[in-house]
């Protein structure tokens, strides 16, 4: 169960520091104690060098907090870190958490490390941390991919046009990457190390109360963070949701969703672990498994491809393809059938009952079914004074309320509303040749049952 060689990138190609006190692992994107290739590699190297392993996490706070993150996001993150800390310490891995950026804590603790191991994410802010670390740390720095099934550059060396261009590339490769990952035994426990840790995430709400951040969007009850909770949800999905997923995934009332997206966003479960479990599931048929793996691997990794190869993926002028910008500009002065302010949209105060319900689900519970997300985004474009304003509104509302906001999927899905990974369609007002979505799309599922389900979910949050 070796870690695939394509998962490795050496960022500082020097020998491990002689006399180092430990192997350091920066827990940043893969916030879990199991099925984590970066952690398992750190343990392998610790065993080889005769050293303990220390995992560290830098908690951004106040003015230096993670962009657009609020109490909702931090509560879920901290719940996951409490779970990760317990799992790491049970395995004999040390855990240090401080108020610092990921780069700051890695550079500081890296001064005594024989080797520094990083996991990987594809957002611009993450790339900047990795670059800062590689320049400042004087020992060997190795990055190990554990956030996607197939590492982005291995799957493709360029920005892909659409799912149909990336899909065959992934299909050729992913069998080699969907492999079990055994937990390595820690031969040198970290119990004897005396490393000060400013924060103990074992009480997530206590840590949250001591932070300076946006508390207007609060924690949710619908989702509890952590790899333990992620596996419970996955097990329930495989038992009750996978069978019929192929036909039911586009019907929000069908309860066919796995709800893995928040856990994947915060790195609390591995996509490879999910793929293995889906592949081995007794319930469901090949169509169900294929439909789920399409979402988990092809669609999710198309998003990673987009943010990795697009500088300015969060800006309208950079993220939206030229043909779409041109046709939207040609229709920018078309009269809008309805016009709403951003505050009205966020509050769900439109004429469209079903849109308002979808917005309520997001605002109150931190989640919205993907079928509704498409309709939701297209209507913001239709009801905004210009395409650029609509793009910016959609992204801000998305990132503020969704638990999995500020994610490669979020940036990509919002840009899709405006033509990314799509083709020209029939011309119409406001949209030009960008794909339009009407109220008729609501007829594809039982909208009244969806409304009742959301009302129940929102009531449970009170």
Automatic annotation (TrEMBL):
SUPFAM superfamilies registered for this protein in UniProt: Cryptochrome/photolyase FAD-binding domain, Cryptochrome/photolyase, N-terminal domain
PANTHER family assigned to the protein according to its UniProt record, in alphabetical order: DEOXYRIBODIPYRIMIDINE PHOTO-LYASE, DEOXYRIBODIPYRIMIDINE PHOTOLYASE
Source organism of the structure: Methylobacterium cerastii
Domain Photolyase/cryptochrome alpha/beta: 21-152
Residue ranges of the TM segments: none
Gene3D superfamilies hit by this protein: 1.25.40.80, DNA Cyclobutane Dipyrimidine Photolyase, subunit A, domain 3, HUPs
InterPro entries membership: Crypto/Photolyase_FAD-like_sf, Crypto/Photolyase_N_sf, DNA_photolyase_N, Photolyase_Class-2, Rossmann-like_a/b/a_fold
Protein name, as recorded: Photolyase/cryptochrome alpha/beta domain-containing protein
Coiled-coil regions, chain positions: none
Co-factor requirement: (6R)-5,10-methylene-5,6,7,8-tetrahydrofolate
Source organism superkingdom: Bacteria
């Amino acid at each position: 169960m070796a870690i695939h060689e394509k998962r490795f990138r050496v960022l500082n190609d020097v020998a491990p520091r002689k006399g180092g006190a430990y192997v350091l692992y920066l827990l940043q994107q893969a916030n879990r104690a199991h099925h984590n290739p970066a952690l398992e590699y750190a343990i392998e190297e610790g065993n080889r060098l005769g050293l303990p392993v220390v995992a560290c996490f830098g908690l951004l706070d106040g003015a230096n907090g993670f962009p657009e993150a609020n109490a909702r996001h931090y509560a879920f993150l901290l719940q996951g870190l409490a779970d990760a800390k317990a799992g790491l310490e049970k395995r004999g891995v040390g855990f240090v958490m401080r108020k610092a950026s990921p780069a700051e804590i890695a550079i500081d603790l890296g001064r005594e490390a024989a080797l520094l191991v990083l996991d990987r994410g594809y957002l611009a802010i993450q790339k900047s941390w990795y670059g800062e670390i590689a320049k400042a740390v004087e020992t060997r720095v190795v990055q190990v991919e554990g956030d996607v099934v197939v590492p982005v550059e291995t799957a493709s060396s360029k920005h892909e046009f659409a799912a149909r261009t990336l899909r065959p590339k992934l299909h050729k490769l992913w069998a080699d990457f969907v492999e079990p990952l055994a937990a390595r035994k820690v031969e040198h426990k970290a119990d004897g190390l005396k490393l000060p840790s400013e924060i103990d995430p074992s009480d997530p709400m206590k840590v949250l109360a001591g932070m300076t951040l946006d508390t207007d969007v609060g924690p949710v009850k619908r989702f509890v963070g952590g790899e333990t909770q992620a596996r419970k949800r996955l097990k329930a999905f495989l038992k009750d949701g996978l069978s019929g997923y192929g036909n039911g995934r586009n019907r929000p009332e069908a309860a066919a969703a796995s709800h893995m997206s928040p856990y994947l966003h915060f790195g609390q479960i591995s996509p490879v672990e999910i793929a293995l479990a889906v592949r081995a599931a007794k319930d469901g048929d090949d169509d169900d498994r294929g439909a789920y793996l399409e979402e988990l691997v092809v669609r999710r990794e198309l998003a990673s491809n987009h943010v990795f190869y697009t500088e300015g993926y969060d800006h309208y002028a950079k993220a939206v393809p030229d043909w779409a910008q041109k046709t939207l500009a040609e229709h920018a002065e078309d009269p809008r059938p309805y016009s709403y302010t951003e505050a009205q949209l966020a509050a769900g105060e439109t004429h469209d009952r079903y849109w308002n319900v979808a917005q309520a689900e997001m605002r109150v519970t931190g989640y919205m079914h993907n079928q509704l997300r498409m309709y939701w985004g297209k209507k913001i474009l239709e009801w905004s004074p210009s395409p650029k304003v609509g793009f910016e509104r959609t992204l801000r509302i998305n990132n503020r309320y969704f638990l999995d906001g500020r994610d490669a999927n979020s940036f990509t899905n919002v840009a899709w509303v405006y033509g990314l990974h799509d083709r020209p369609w029939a011309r119409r007002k406001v949209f030009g040749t960008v794909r339009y979505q009407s109220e008729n799309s609501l007829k594809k599922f039982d909208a009244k049952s969806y409304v009742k389900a959301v009302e129940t979910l929102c009531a449970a949050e009170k």
